[in-house]
């Protein structure tokens, strides 16, 4: 059978457990099932446990560095099933050869790496890609990354991170799609599609990994690795849907999170992994732990030692141990002492072998890696396009932007010349030297790094307009980069004040991987452009937007607080008995020392010119369970430039058995509009999309639903109501269901 057919046949052992919800759970072809059963029959306990062991073949910054003779000997003995921190078509082919030619059972190895936003061609960070509000952008980025990483012999990436994050103090906010379960679900499925393609067997693709299951983004205080306390409704309605969407899109693997949820570390959370993910969602892909997380169960205080930790993780349903060595050291012995563990080991090994089968590795273990393509040129055109689409124009008072031709420009700020930051912290094989900075892209501007404030002020005085790059370098976001204050780093606020004092119009160009809390700093700054960390074409992309060669079209995937102390927050908060009131004399749900709500809300973003919205019209006044309702809205470009408008649809259930969020995103479309053009966006929804989680079920209640269309979560232009005529039970997380969108 050729590889394509094998992979099209799907992947898993237990055909009976398949539901259409999880493509990854489709049964394997009979030949592969038989092969896996035969292998399981031949394997010693030690060989089985070897398959469950993933080892670092190098360090993140020094790939392959641990692949010495002793390591190869371990491969020959079947002591590991997978390597991470390895790469390169030729070295991986050599390593694979040892496994498939020199080990007893000739089982191929699985090669993994964190290929997050590009491999050689470094693209915008994930939060920036989500800011495109265009799943096609996320999909294309994933595809480019997969094609390059595949050429380097890699099978498996630890992406996408689908953790909802509502607290920008958490440094890993940069790696996800922001605060919203619906947007996060759409981006998650697009990323899975981009990495895996319609069929992993077509080649030039990688197995995706939805991580970190689950609640990692809800870390208390925004402190990475810290515990999360999330109620069952919020867990099901907010944190789980993007995982469900990723599973349904066929994500071949999941990674458990470091954190504890309600006191139970996710690496040992049998209720959620075995009970929920496996039993309820029928997910049968491979589940891997996070780095050393099995051993860290001892630190969590739920295991006396690493042996106990290994048994707990196995019982929870974790198939593969990333880097802790606990499975390798203790599982065989534990299973010898307790035979009830053997079937669990067999299941896990079956899933690992199934993943290898699905990747085609049993048919052609050398099918990955292409030395010629591994040296292919960087994909700059696509990188620039994706970067441009990820930019968000937050403020443009007096139409300061686009820049007027011939304007004398001062460009201030070290970040404008920081190539290393442009490529972010997950840079795979990317090189800072490949990045084109804003300084390089705006060669005609009078550049000052800003370390000498007086020199920066002089440059500003000579200019008609001051462009100042502010924010965080690559090293302030990412893993273990939580901050208690998310303002401007040292020195930048003083620099900005000095520039403001010149009276020149200022464009703040905000770089970095998290939304910063800058209300005070940005007061008096007429234009603000959020540019994130945009990859190797960062500078040219920003320059094209500044000069008006292209119009900004991105939107915030997470609100920007006024002050750190507002975090965490979300536009999709619940109503309260005493809703926030602008009048401080009224006791209400707000802070006394800051305005209500974020500085820039979820979904906010401007473009050049003006967009007009028509009324929201519905196809019917009522809908029955199982039926569909269509909501349409017309948008018109009243400006003189071709732009994109992100039309957003929010829902609210005004009276329900439990309090419902004031608004929840339930549809969006990034709509290209020529000058003067009108287009109509039609959203088709089902009652199940308004279900809430109660007592372990998805409840669709009879009653009214408000739909609101607009340009952001706070800029709602029109609304309409319909009624769900009867109650029903939903089957899946409401936010993971996609609204059908048509643009006419
Ligand atoms: C730890 C991180 O939490 C995870 O996201 C990553 O994939 C692994 N390290 C492997 O590098």
What would you note in describing this structure?
It is a single chain. This protein is of the alpha/beta class. Among the domains are: 381-566, Rossmann fold; 611-743, Sandwich (Immunoglobulin-like), CATH 2.60.40. Helices cover 29% and strands 18% of the residues. The protein has 23 helices and 29 strands. The strands form seven sheets. Strands 11-16-15-14-12-13 form a six-stranded mixed β-sheet. Strand 1, helix 4 and strand 2 form a beta-alpha-beta unit. Helix 3 crosses helix 15, helix 7 packs parallel to helix 8 (181-196) and helix 11 runs parallel beside helix 13. The protein is globular, with a radius of gyration of 26 Å. It starts with a helix and ends with a strand. The model is unreliable at 1-25 (pLDDT under 50). The chain binds 1-deoxynojirimycin. The site of 1-deoxynojirimycin has 6 residues, from loops. The site of 1-deoxynojirimycin (NOJ) has 6 residues, from loops.
